[in-house]
Amino acid sequence: MLKEKIKNIESLEELQELYTSVFGKNGTMTVRLKDMKNLNNDERAELNRENTELRELFKSRQDELELVAMNASLAKQKLDVTLDGEPENRGTLHPVTQSFKEAVAIFESMGYTLWTGPEIEDDWHNFTALNTPAHHPARDMQDTFFLENGNVMRTQTSAIQIRAMEKLGAPIKIFAIGNCYRKELDATHSAMFDQLEGLYVDKVEKNINLSDLLGTMRVFASKFFGRDVDLRIRPSYFPFTDPSIEIDMKWGDRWLELLCGGMVHPNVLRNCGIDPEKYQGFAFGFGWDRLAMLKYGLNDIRAFTDGDIRWLKNSGF
Ligand code: DAH
User: Fold this and answer.
1) Domain boundaries of the chain, sorted by first residue
2) Which of 55, 88, 122, 170 is the most exposed place for a label (fewest CB within 10 A)?
C-alpha cells in the first residue's frame, strides 16, 4: 500500500524516487489525473482527495527525514569553541597620529589648551607678526611655498601663537600641532611635516623664564619617551624669541636636537596687543615627525607618507 510505503521509507533518495514514480511525468497519479475527464463527479472528488493526501504524506515524511539528517550531521560535527577565529583585519593608527594623541594628553595634563590655525596663512601671521618683517633675513631660513594671492603655505606653527594671542590675549597657555610646508625633501626633511608649538605667557610677577621652559620640556620628553631624559641648552636665533635657544636630548651616546624655543620677543607680544611690560613668557616649537621617528626607531621620515602599511602594522598598536 502506497501510504504505508511512504511512511516507512528511510532515506530521502528513496523518497524522491517514489515521489517521481507517483507524481513524475509518467507517474501513476499523473496518469490518473490526466484521465480525470472520464470520471464522474464522485470519482473526481475522491481522486482529488487522494492526490492531496499523498502530497501531504510525501511532504511530512520529507520533513521528518530532513530533520533526522540534520540531527545526524550536527552530532557528527563537533564545534570547538576554543579554536582561534578568522583573523580580523583591523585598521591601525598612524604612528604620527598615535604620538600626537599622547602629546595632547601630556600637554593637557600640564594645563595647556590645544589650539589650531589654517594651513594657508597670510604674511602677517606666518612672518610679520612674528617679528619677521618683509626683507628680514630670517625669512630665508625657510623655503616658503608662496600662493599667487600673496598667502603662503604655513611654514611654521608659530603662526598659531599669533592667532591664539590675538584671540585670547594674556595670560595664555596653549599648544598646537599642525602641518607645515617647506620646499625641502630628503631623508630627514619632508615638504610637508608636522610641528608642535607651545606658548606660555603670564604676568611678569610670575617670572616665567627659560628654566621653566627647560623643566616643561624635561617633563614632556620623559613622559613621551617613557624614561628620564638628559637635556642641554644651546644658544640660537629666532626673530620671535629673545633669548633664543635650542634644546638637545641625550639619545644613547649622542646629543640630538629636540626643540627650539626662547622667551617671547616683546615685539611679538606688542603685535598681538599684549603689553610686554606686564607680561612675559616662553614659546617653543619642534618638528613633530622627528620626535615620532625617534620614538619608533625610524631613520627615514618619508616612511610616514610612502603608503607602505607593513611597518604601520608592526609599530605596536
Ligand atoms: N618656528 C620655528 C621653526 O620652524 C621653531 C620655533 C622656534 C618655534 C622658537 C618657537 C620658538 O615657538 O619659540 O624653525
Assistant:
1) 2-76, 95-314
2) 88
112 lines ligand 1 (CB under 6 A): no
Between residues 205 and 84, which one has the greater pLDDT?
Answer: 205
For ligand 1, the distance from its centroid to the CA atom of residue 144, given in whole angstroms, is: 15
Distance 195 CA to ligand 1 centre (A): 9
> Which tens digits make up the pLDDT trace of 150-169?
899 999 999 999 999 999 99
CB of 285 closer than 6 A to ligand 1? yes
Q: How far apart are CA 163 and CA 172, in angstroms?
A: 12
Query: Ligand 1 mean position to 214 CA, how many Å?
Result: 15
Pairwise CA distance, residues 32 & 26, whole Å:
10
77-105 pLDDT, tens digit per residue, is: 888 888 888 888 777 787 778 888 999 99
The CATH number that domain 95-314 falls under is 3.30.930.10
